[in-house]
Specification:
It is found in: Cell membrane. The protein is mainly α and 427 residues long. The chain has 14 helices and no strands.
């Protein structure tokens, strides 16, 4: 059964819970995660100086964090199945806030390293739980809204990067910078409240049978194209997010106060891109959006690699964010529709590509940066982004697929998402 939602006020679930409220809660968790990630990314040079870590040691610490996030994703999957996504979201965000404090006030390298690993575990749990909830909310709305959640993530990242730059300008040590971020993340976590979502009404004759969903090895085969796009998107994201501050500071001569501005500009670009991505999908379709995003990302990264000074790099980082903005939410939305009755299962697998991309991006760019070749670290992802143009066809709504695939209409008409029943799952 195809259910569409018009442009009227958001519906309410049969149990009385507000769908708009569920959307706000989900966006809040995305924002909290954005602040937490930005807190870690924009303090890389300051933490390295504070702990007397070399570039290679900081790269190894970033890789350990990413590996922990991959493990946290599967731990989060088990927790979501047991307790539901909302409980996991709240607990994981509070854990992320606590680990930021631990990094800030760690007495030595060993304690700080352990805190980074715990932060990675919390980050992975947030990923799988919040994306599961976002996919469920999107199915209830019956139209593309996932990009708006990622826009909240990016907007929070901009605010956090500016907070890092502002506090650093005041001369505060990194301990106080991370403490300010931790307090903000904790406050956002305390606003998370469960919003019950009843199954979308559907007749039994129209309801897809369990066998109709993509199962087993077929999930991986159908997931790979979206995973490749997500992998490259996170290579780009981690290269810009994790090392743009160091690139501006070490290669382009920016001060510690100016260096975080590239991260802020990158996130500002993603906010802008994601704010309009859902509308663009409805107007021109997913294939055109993916192709345009890949081309813009490639051009922006090439400009970032060739930047003559840090202000040019800031502008290029903004354009890179604008280009890559739609890729992640489109991949998550497409993957979650492979098994709409159990999206967390597919999303946990999709996160494998996510963290491989982060490992490749952060590890390779950190290694190149340690040898003074940050420019090459941005040129390589530019070529990878250009190659994504060839993957756009996999996002074609009319391609053979499960009965839950997007339904496309002419530009200007409704873009409808068939809604699957959320089979007895906790809110």
């Amino acid at each position: 059964m195809t259910a569409s939602v018009g442009a009227t006020a958001p519906p309410r679930s049969a149990s009385g819970g507000s769908l708009a409220g569920a959307r706000r809660v989900t966006a809040t968790v995305f924002a909290a995660q954005g602040v937490a990630v930005a807190a870690v990314s924009t303090t890389v040079p300051a933490v390295a100086n504070h702990l007397r870590l070399s570039s290679l040691e900081m790269t190894a610490l970033t890789i350990a964090l990413t590996l922990a996030a991959g493990a946290g994703s599967f731990a989060g999957l088990a927790a979501v199945r047991r307790s539901g996504p909302v409980a996991v979201m709240r607990a994981a965000v509070l854990t992320a806030a606590a680990t930021l404090l631990s990094v800030a006030w760690a007495p030595g390298r060993a304690a700080a390293s352990a805190a980074y690993v715990l932060f990675g575990l919390a980050l992975g749990a947030i990923d799988v739980s919040v994306n599961t909830r976002a996919a469920t909310v999107e199915r209830h709305y019956g139209r593309s809204i996932l990009s708006s959640f990622y826009a909240a993530w990016s907007a929070a990242g901009v605010a956090a990067a500016l907070l890092t730059a502002g506090v650093s300008q005041l001369g505060w040590p990194v301990q106080y910078v991370l403490t300010a971020h931790a307090v903000l993340v904790a406050l956002l976590a305390l606003t998370v409240r469960p919003q019950a979502l009843a199954p979308v009404p559907s007749s039994s004759s129209d309801r897809p049978a369990p066998d109709d969903e993509i199962q087993g090895r077929r999930v991986w085969s159908r997931l790979v194209p979206f995973g490749v796009v997500l992998l490259v998107a996170y290579v780009v994201d981690s290269t810009v997010s994790a090392w743009s501050t160091a690139y501006l500071h070490q290669t382009l001569g920016a001060s510690l106060a100016a260096a975080p501005l590239a991260y802020a500009a990158y996130q500002a670009g993603t906010v802008t891109g994601r704010a309009g991505a859902d509308l663009m999908v409805r107007r021109v379709g997913q294939v055109a959006v993916v192709r345009a995003a890949a081309l813009l990302t490639a051009a922006a990264l090439a400009s970032l690699a060739a930047a003559r000074s840090w202000p040019y790099a800031v502008v290029a980082a903004c354009c890179a964010g604008l280009g890559v903005a739609a890729l992640t939410p489109l991949c998550v939305a497409a993957a979650s529709r492979l098994r709409p009755g159990a999206p967390e299962t597919v999303l946990a697998r999709l996160n494998v590509f996510n963290y491989v991309g982060v490992l490749v991006g952060a590890g390779a760019s950190g290694g190149l940066g340690a040898t003074g070749h940050f420019r090459i670290a941005y040129a390589i992802p530019a070529a990878l982004a250009l190659a994504l143009v060839t993957t756009a066809c996999f996002f074609r709504p009319t391609a053979p697929g499960p009965p839950h695939a997007w339904t496309t209409r002419r530009p200007g008409s409704a873009h409808v998402l068939p809604v699957a029943v959320d089979r007895g799952r906790r809110p």
